[in-house]
Amino acid sequence: MTRLAPTSVEEIADMVRDVRALGTKLRIRGGDTRHRTGLVEEHSAVLDLSGLDRIIAYEPDELVLTAEAGVRLETVVALLATRGQHLAFEPAARAGSTLGGAIAANIAGPRRLVAGAVRDHFLGFEAVNGRGIRFRAGGRVVKNVTGFDLPKLLAGSWGSLAALTTVTVKVMPAPATVLTLALDGLDDARGVAALCRACSTAAEVSGAAHIPGGATLLRLEGFAPSVAARATLLDAALSGFGNLRRLDDDEGRAVWRTLTDAEDDAASQWRLTVPPTAAAATVAALAAKHDVQARYDWAGGLVLLSVAADGAAVAPDIHALAKAAGGSAMLLRDRAGAAPCAMFAAQPAPLAALSVRVRAAFDPDGVFTDRMAGN
Asked: Tell me, what is one Gene Ontology molecular-function annotation carried by this entry (predicted)?
């Protein structure tokens, strides 16, 4: 298989036009951390964007960063830390992931509760579409964005619409104090109930997770006096669930990382978005049929599943249970050697038709592989 390694936008456009003329396909690759995600269509070449790795502009006073899409996330995080800032959406990404890849996947971490999704921080971009034409959309600040909000569309498109080349994101001040609190000994239903109770208070929780067999976790961020006052509030609000214990800083950081970058390569990895009140019952129903390990994030609204089976083998049960709960499921990463499996369930006909029209507008000849198609 041919690996194309452009170092400029002009080269990307030329390569896409060449592949289109040949009638073949390209798979877009950044850090290559999601190569076992979704369907793998036949393609003649990989478009490796990791060579586009420059920070173009960082304006701390304006809370804006512009970079080439192939820049590593760890590079961005380290740069922002020098000015006491961070990516507030807390990207759920593996080591080696790129900024463009994080945007294309639109997978946010525990702080999504208060900070929103990746797309909510994605201000603008330059990209190359399936015709090999460069285009741009958005801007450096939200008030400058007019017309169709294309950044929202490309976030979560998994490289199926265009090759992102340059991206602009909003950054935020990092919290001065971070405190992680834990409740021990709760089963899944009680753990999720405690999270929901905490989020219904004025404590402004920035992380709410339950790890079965581990602990029920809450995170508070801000200035030290405010964090201390909100911790006291939670002590009272959650007294019926047990005693809250304080984790030290290192332990707290480590436990939240398990919700953003810990994945078991021997299992298929799924993300279920369901109403928190249905989360524990949905996991229990799935566990009755399959060997499942679950972690709950977003106060139970997100269930991270590791299933000891290929994605295709469990997809019917997972999609059916997610739908019955009023939610949806996404196959994030399959086991090595597994048969190809779509990331999502089949779309209703009207939505599927709309997806086809949108893709045709960006990539009429299907140059870019589509890993998301419903099964």
From this structure: FAD binding
pTM, entire model: 0.91
- Same domain assignment for residues 114 and 182: no
Residues 82, 148 within the same domain: yes
Domain membership flag for residue 107 = yes
> Looking at the structure, do residues 231 and 123 belong to the same domain, yes or no?
no
Amino acid at 20: R
Asked which of 257, 281, 304 is the last residue of a domain, the reply is 257
What pLDDT sits at residue 39?
56
Residue 314: which CATH number?
Answer: 3.30.70
Q: 322: burial class by Cβ within 10 Å (0-12, 13-18, 19+)?
A: buried
Q: How confident is the model at residue 263 (pLDDT cuts 50, 70, 90)?
A: low
Residue 375, pLDDT above cutoff 50: no
**Is 16 in the same domain as 84?**
yes
Residue from 280, 373, 279 nearest 330 by CA: 373
The phi-psi region of residue 98 (left if phi > 0; otherwise alpha if psi is between -120 and 50; otherwise beta) is: beta
What pLDDT was estimated at residue 37? Answer: 63
Q: Is the pLDDT of residue 143 over 60?
A: no
> Average pLDDT for residues 216-221, to the nearest whole number?
98
Element housing 234 (H / E): helix 224-237
When mean pLDDT is compared across 24-33, 85-94, 139-148, 273-282, the lowest value belongs to: 139-148
Res 66 pLDDT > 90 = yes
Is 301 domain-assigned? yes
CA 231 to chain centre: 28
276-287 vs 188-199: helix crossing angle, rounded to 10: 160
- What's the pLDDT score for residue 337? 81
Number of C-beta neighbours around residue 246 at 10 A: 11
Of 197, 232, 257, the last residue of a domain is 257
Question: If residue 81 lies in a helix (H) or strand (E), which one and from where to where?
Answer: helix 73-81
User: Strand pairing of 162-170 and 122-129?
Assistant: antiparallel
Coil, strand, or helix at residue 169? strand
Examine the domain organization and report whether 248 and 302 are in the same domain: no
| Total residue count of the chain as it appears in this document | 375
Range of the domain at 279: 268-333
207 alpha-carbon distance from chain centroid? 15
- Residue whose entry in the numeric block shows the structure tokens 């393609």: 43
